[in-house]
Amino acid sequence: MFNVGSKLAKRVTRIEESPIRKMMMAGSKVPGAISLAQGIPDSRTPQYIRDGIIEMLKEDSKIGKYTLGPGLPELRKLVADSISKKGGFPVDPDKNVCITAGAIEALAITISSIVEEGDEVILFDPGYPPYIPLIKFAGGKPVLVPLQADNAWKIDLDKLRSAVTPKTKVLIVCNPSNPTGMVMGKEELTAIAELAEKHGFFVIADLTYEFLVYDEGTIPSLLEFPSISDRLIICYSFSKEFSMTGWRAGYLFGPEKVVEQALKVHDDFLLCAPTPSQYAALIALTKKPGPDPDGLHAELVEKRNLTCERLDRLSDLFSYTKPKGAYYVLARYKKPNIGSQEFAMRLLNEAKVIVVPGIGCGSQGEGHVRFSYGASKEKLNEAFDRIEEWTKTL
Ligand SMILES: Cc1ncc(COP(=O)(O)O)c(C=O)c1O
């Protein structure tokens, strides 16, 4: 008998299944369940992008072919110019930029290019779930710095400093944060930049939600710290800013030597990011008809407010910190004896609402569930109506 299980690669079998995927799979078996689990904006990809691609599909013979491995030169140039403008230093589109299949590919090829067996990678807990498996896959050790649950999920800078060791290879910053909605300010970013400079490690900035900050207008960027421009890596996603989750487009910016290695991995796994999606990203950046096409941003502001109002009505069950960015609320439930996995499963089976158990985002997430408010306002209201009804049965 051929024992398939014993012959699989341990570097993959030791990785746990994504808590988001697990909930989505469980949810798909519950008819009529509403998902507030995955971070998918309900709105369609804006009209100008769809129209632009339709035209290209009709007219352009290049759209169905591979591009150069690092991506369309004109898209890389746009990315390079925008980073150079923000950072005030030269960026070479041929050496510092690679167009990827979403931010997740940018993270994956970067982490596999810089993290080795035994390297430590500092992360904040709770954090975006896929960081940990990507680090483990590369043989690295995730070092989790707990965020302050009782202080708006702020970073405890002393804890951050004491997490640094000679083995620290990289620190991952997600600003604004998925899952907490926290935004790092100047003080935190200064501390991070100082540590990276002093101890000689990379900083990966996951800027998937940089476009979505609610009350503070814009947030400071790690690009403003020239002392770390030689070790700063940016992973960006077109998914959320342009409601393009299914297209799979993003980019990696980093030092030439990192991008050179990451490109090898990108080439071996993917050859190039999907060409129609690269053109869609190009259209997204170059043909934008106004500051908020199709009102995506305005709608997310409304949905944040709606979600908070609905959670306020459930204050006997939930407490939470109002998100300052991104589109998630990590709410604490006042049922101390139930683990978040069980709580999420009960919400699914009894209220037909899919959420992510906080434990999936790290041990500090235990006792919480993550609500994504990418869903439509109707779905959000229906989901919270169901939760309100459900609370009466508790
Ligand atoms: C923080 C964060 N980083 C990266 C990603 C992946 O984005 P993409 O769709 O561009 O791969 C997500 C998706 O939800 C995310 O929330």
UniProtKB/TrEMBL annotation:
<dbReference type="InterPro" id="IPR004838">
    <property type="entry name" value="NHTrfase_class1_PyrdxlP-BS"/>
</dbReference>
<dbReference type="InterPro" id="IPR050596">
    <property type="entry name" value="AspAT/PAT-like"/>
</dbReference>
<dbReference type="InterPro" id="IPR015421">
    <property type="entry name" value="PyrdxlP-dep_Trfase_major"/>
</dbReference>
<feature type="domain" description="Aminotransferase class I/classII large">
    <location>
        <begin position="34"/>
        <end position="387"/>
    </location>
</feature>
<protein>
    <recommendedName>
        <fullName>Aminotransferase</fullName>
        <ecNumber>2.6.1.-</ecNumber>
    </recommendedName>
</protein>
<keyword id="KW-0808">Transferase</keyword>
<dbReference type="GO" id="GO:0030170">
    <property type="term" value="F:pyridoxal phosphate binding"/>
</dbReference>
<comment type="similarity">
    <text>Belongs to the class-I pyridoxal-phosphate-dependent aminotransferase family.</text>
</comment>
<dbReference type="InterPro" id="IPR015424">
    <property type="entry name" value="PyrdxlP-dep_Trfase"/>
</dbReference>
<dbReference type="GO" id="GO:0008483">
    <property type="term" value="F:transaminase activity"/>
</dbReference>
<dbReference type="Pfam" id="PF00155">
    <property type="entry name" value="Aminotran_1_2"/>
</dbReference>
<keyword id="KW-0032">Aminotransferase</keyword>
<dbReference type="GO" id="GO:0006520">
    <property type="term" value="P:amino acid metabolic process"/>
</dbReference>
<keyword id="KW-0663">Pyridoxal phosphate</keyword>
<dbReference type="InterPro" id="IPR015422">
    <property type="entry name" value="PyrdxlP-dep_Trfase_small"/>
</dbReference>
<dbReference type="InterPro" id="IPR004839">
    <property type="entry name" value="Aminotransferase_I/II_large"/>
</dbReference>
